[in-house]
Every structure is written in structure tokens, then in C-alpha cells.
Design goal:
Blueprint lengths: L1 H7 L8 H23 L7 H4 L2 H10 L2 H18 L4 H7 L13 H25 L4 H17 L5 H8 L1 H26 L3 H19 L3 H20 L6 H15 L3 H6 L7 H20 L2 H17 L5 E3 L2 H23 L5 H31 L16 H6 L2 E3 L15 H24 L5 H10 L2 H16 L6 E5 L20 H10 L3 E5 L3
Parallel strand pairs: 3-4
Antiparallel strand pairs: 1-2
Helix pairs in contact: 2-8, 2-21, 4-5, 5-6, 6-10, 7-8, 7-10, 8-16, 8-18, 9-10, 9-18, 10-11, 10-12, 11-13, 12-13, 12-17, 15-17, 16-18, 16-20, 17-18
């Protein structure tokens, strides 16, 4: 009996992709626990009061949630005519949770991380599992590695605050970026889903999301517009003309946003670059920021783990990866295109929300390129790629997406590995080494720099009491602001400004735009900051 038990639990030297995906999922969730814990101390600031005023007034006077949402659409129309064109973002930005109850504001953090997680998992499943027939657990592992790098390794400072903890910024950038992932996943699903009803659902949802993404922030909408044009070209050459509709919906929303009358008014207050200079600087920034600054040792190790998983995934992939150089050039161009709109409009990418989205798309594209290039390398080394079928002549009619991805179909290849797929002993050893290096490196780094990961940054301000004190002072401010007898509010400066919670504050000058927005929101004649240090 003892011998049988020993044999049963003996490690064979191979790691199951199913178990690896479970471990990565646990690590991802555990890393989010401190983030969610500190989110309880999050409070509205800046544009949450300015843009949310109309919805707050409507809800306060009527108690009707739909009246508040209606004000969000009104603000989108008003800003479209007078200030900025991205109407989808404005609807969300104009109805922050605090307009209903200030205690609901932390919901924004949960919402943004949930949608980002779901969008990444959905897109990877559509591309890797449905289209490329990669093992579903390998796809899940790659998605979780991408999410770990995206969330935990995001550059320190305002990028983290403005992407997840400041609602007005998060719904403009992270939410619309996530919608873009869903939109691309739906395009792929509309071709590869087996049920006709499911394909119709995919197309309808893709049309709705396409229009919404087209009317969102210009970094995401431009990137998706490029994808839409490429899909249209491929669809016109092949059979799936139904993909034209969701792509045209996105381009229509993008065109409406770009042609908004309000954009001219805003442009007069900004100083951007010309078109040629924008392109050159965007190409340079992709190299300078993404490679030199964002790719830390931890990011490199996670990317290495993704390469290990990609090597195994390529074992059963049903496509030939024929154009690695073209794929790398295209991916580099997509990352550069992402940062082009703020350079063209403002001449810089200093805001944390811009850095965050630039970083997020870079991580996504880097992992996708890894899968493609590693897949090509494995097929080249092992000779696993057979003769390719014609791009527009495959019997299943799914080839236009293969062409857009730079892949051609392999005849007589297996359609995916079984759920019990395992890394080889060599790959398992490499994975264990990478995990050990991450643990050792993290222990050294976090000791010296507790803000290195988002989770440790959150844990530090929870343990040292700074988050609790920040909440206490915010509560004290709310008592003053909600006191009808106080017409000129004087608010004490925060003792501590937690890295993940604090974005911006009022100033000693009552004419500052943030002071005026806060005073109007709470019905005060004036609001000023009292320095305590």
C-alpha cells in the first residue's frame, strides 16, 4: 500500500498546463486581495466632482437612477459640441458611483479590474483556442501571465492611480481598452463559433461594442480602427462579408468622435506635434519607454515564462506561422500608434493614464508576438509545418482571420491538445527556475522598494496605517462639506497621500478649478485648502 501511495504522488518532472493555469490564477487573485482591501479607502476627486455634478444633482433631486444616467448622455452631447469628441467615455465619466452614494466609489476599482480580466481571458480564448486551436489551458496561462504583468508590474506612481483608483480616468482608458479586447474577441468568435445563433449574437454584440469603442478614448479607438480596416480588407477578399458590419460600426463611431465640433475648442488650448513628428516620436517612445523603462527584470521573467508556455502550445497549433518579421513590425507599429493621439494633440504622454494604457497595450502585443515568433521558431526547428493551404481557399471559410494574423492553415494537424497536456521535463525545469528567480528577486526588490508591485504597494499603506488615516480625513472633510450651515469650507491638508489612493487635491486658491468643482458639487460658496505642514 505504501509503495502504491508513493508511486501515485511521485512527480514525473512534468508540469501540467491545467495545474499551472490554476497556480497562476491563485497567484493573480492573491495579488488582487491587497488591492481590493485598500480600495475600501478610495474617495472621489477632481473630475469625479466636476463631470459628475449634473448626474449628482439629478439623483439628489429625484432619487431616480435613470435621471442620473440620462445626465450622463446629456453631458456626452454637451461635451461633444463644446469640448471633446469621445462620447462613449464621457457617458461613463459623467456618472461616477459617488453621485449615488459616496460609499459606492470603491466599486470602480472592482469593476475596472473585473472587466480587464474578463476581456483579456475572452480575447485570448477566442484567438488562441477558437482560431489557432491552442490548448485551452495554455491559452489561460498566457492570459494570466499577461494580466499579472499588466496589473502588478504597471509602472509605479500615477499610472496605477489613474488606471484603477481614479474612476473618471479608469472608465475612459481601462474600461474602453477592455471593451476593445471584447470587440476583437467577438470578431474572431463570429467566424469560429459553431452555432449560427451564437455567431449572430457575436456579430450583434460586436456592432454595439464597435460603435462604443469607436467613440472612446483616441488611443484605443485608433488602435481598433486600424484592426477594423485590416479586417475589412481581408473580409472583402474572402467569404465572411458579415464582418464588415461591426468594423464599419467602429469606424463610424471613430469618425463621429474625430469630427466632433468640440475638438476644435479643446485643440486651441493644447499644443501638439505635427503628423510626421508625431509618427517619429511615437516610434522612438515605443523603444525608449517600453523597452528601456517598462521592461523590468520581473517583466522579463514573466515574458520568459510566456515563451515557455508558447513553445508547448505550438506543439499542437493548427496554423503555420509564416511571417515572424512582418508580425514584429506590425506589433511595433500598433504599440506606436497607440501613443500617437496624445502626442499629436498634447505633445506629451506625461499623464499617468496615458502611461498606463501605453504600457497595457505594449504588454498585450508583446505576449501575442511571443506566441507567434516562438510558434514560428518551433515549427522551423522541428519541421512541424506542413504545406500550407491557400489563404482564401480553405473549405471552412475561416481563412481571412488567419491571413490577418499572418498565419496559414496546416492540413491534417490536430485541433488542439487535450486538457492533460504537460510541459516536458526540460520546459518544466525552466519554469521552476523562472519561478524561483521571481520569488528570490521579488524578496530582494520588495524589501528595498515596497512599491515595486501593486499588491505590495497596497499592503504597505494598509499596514502602516496611511490608508486608514486617509479615510479618516476624507470622512472629516465630508462632514464639513455636507454641513449646510458652512458656506465657506476650509479643509485640512491630508497627513498622508497613499500611492494608490491619492490622485489630486484642492489648493489654497479658491479659484482653482478643483476647488470650484468641489464647491459647486456640495453647494458651497467657496472651498479652500488649509496647509498643515
Amino acid at each position: 500500500m505504501k509503495k502504491m501511495q508513493t508511486e501515485k504522488f511521485r512527480w514525473t518532472g512534468q508540469i501540467s498546463l491545467r495545474k499551472l493555469s490554476a497556480v497562476l490564477a491563485v497567484i493573480y487573485v492573491l495579488g488582487l486581495l491587497p488591492v481590493f482591501a485598500i480600495a475600501r479607502y478610495n474617495y472621489a476627486s477632481a473630475d469625479d466632482f466636476g463631470m459628475g455634478f449634473a448626474a449628482y444633482r439629478a439623483f439628489s433631486s429625484t432619487g431616480n437612477i435613470f435621471a442620473a444616467i440620462g445626465q450622463g448622455f446629456y453631458m456626452a452631447w454637451y461635451d461633444y459640441l463644446h469640448w471633446m469628441g469621445y462620447f462613449t467615455s464621457t457617458v461613463f465619466m459623467s456618472v461616477p458611483p459617488n453621485v449615488f452614494d459616496e460609499r459606492l466609489y470603491p466599486i470602480g476599482v472592482f469593476l475596472l479590474i473585473f472587466v480587464l480580466t474578463a476581456g483579456t481571458l475572452y480575447f485570448f480564448r477566442a484567438l488562441f483556442v477558437k482560431a489557432w486551436k491552442i490548448d485551452k489551458y495554455a491559452s489561460r496561462c498566457l492570459a494570466l501571465v499577461t494580466l499579472l504583468v499588466t496589473v502588478q508590474c504597471m509602472p509605479e506612481g500615477s499610472a496605477r492611480v489613474e488606471s484603477f483608483f481614479w474612476y473618471c480616468s479608469g472608465v475612459n482608458y481601462v474600461l474602453l481598452y477592455s471593451f476593445g479586447l471584447f470587440w476583437m474577441g467577438l470578431l474572431i468568435s463570429a467566424v469560429f463559433d459553431q452555432s449560427r445563433g451564437k455567431r449572430i449574437y457575436d456579430l450583434v454584440m460586436a456592432c454595439i461594442l464597435g460603435f462604443a469603442v469607436g467613440g472612446g478614448n483616441y488611443m484605443t479607438s485608433l488602435s481598433c480602427a486600424i484592426i477594423a480596416v485590416l479586417v475589412i480588407i481581408a473580409a472583402l477578399r474572402c467569404r465572411h462579408k458579415e464582418l464588415l458590419a461591426p468594423c464599419l460600426f467602429l469606424l463610424f463611431g471613430f469618425a463621429l468622435s474625430c469630427l466632433a465640433p468640440g475638438n476644435n475648442n479643446r485643440a486651441q488650448s493644447l499644443q501638439g506635434f505635427g503628423a510626421v513628428k508625431t509618427i517619429l516620436i511615437a516610434l522612438y517612445y515605443t523603444l525608449s519607454y517600453c523597452v528601456n523603462e517598462y521592461t523590468t527584470w520581473a517583466v522579463l521573467l514573466f515574458f520568459a515564462l510566456a515563451a515557455v508556455i508558447a513553445w508547448k502550445a505550438a506543439d499542437k497549433v493548427s496554423f503555420r506561422f509564416s511571417y515572424p518579421a512582418l508580425a514584429v513590425i506590425f506589433g511595433y507599429g500598433m504599440v506606436s500608434a497607440n501613443i500617437a493621439p496624445p502626442l499629436y494633440a498634447e505633445g506629451n504622454i506625461g499623464a499617468g493614464r496615458l502611461v498606463a494604457l501605453f504600457y497595457m497595450q505594449y504588454v498585450l502585443v508583446a505576449v501575442l508576438l511571443e506566441v507567434y515568433v516562438v510558434g514560428w521558431l518551433r515549427q522551423y526547428v522541428t519541421g512541424g509545418a506542413g504545406s500550407a493551404a491557400g489563404v482564401c481557399g480553405a473549405a471552412d471559410g475561416q481563412d481571412h482571420l488567419e491571413e490577418a494574423a499572418g498565419a496559414t492553415r496546416l492540413p491534417a494537424q490536430a485541433q488542439g491538445a487535450a486538457g492533460g497536456a504537460k510541459l516536458s521535463a526540460a520546459l518544466s525545469g525552466v519554469s521552476v527556475f523562472l519561478a524561483a528567480a521571481l520569488i528570490f528577486g521579488s524578496a530582494l526588490t520588495v524589501k528595498a522598494d515596497p512599491d515595486f508591485y501593486m499588491a505590495t504597494c497596497a499592503a504597505q499603506d494598509l499596514l502602516n496605517g496611511h490608508a486608514a488615516r486617509y479615510k479618516e480625513q476624507n470622512d472629516e472633510r465630508r462632514k464639513i462639506l455636507r454641513d449646510a450651515s458652512v458656506k465657506d469650507a476650509v479643509l485640512d491638508e491630508f497627513d498622508y497621500k497613499p500611492d494608490l489612493l491619492f490622485f489630486s487635491d484642492i489648493e489654497t486658491d479658491p479659484s482653482n478649478w478643483q476647488n470650484k468643482a468641489l464647491a459647486r458639487y456640495y453647494g458651497k460658496d467657496s472651498v479652500v485648502l488649509r496647509k498643515t505642514k
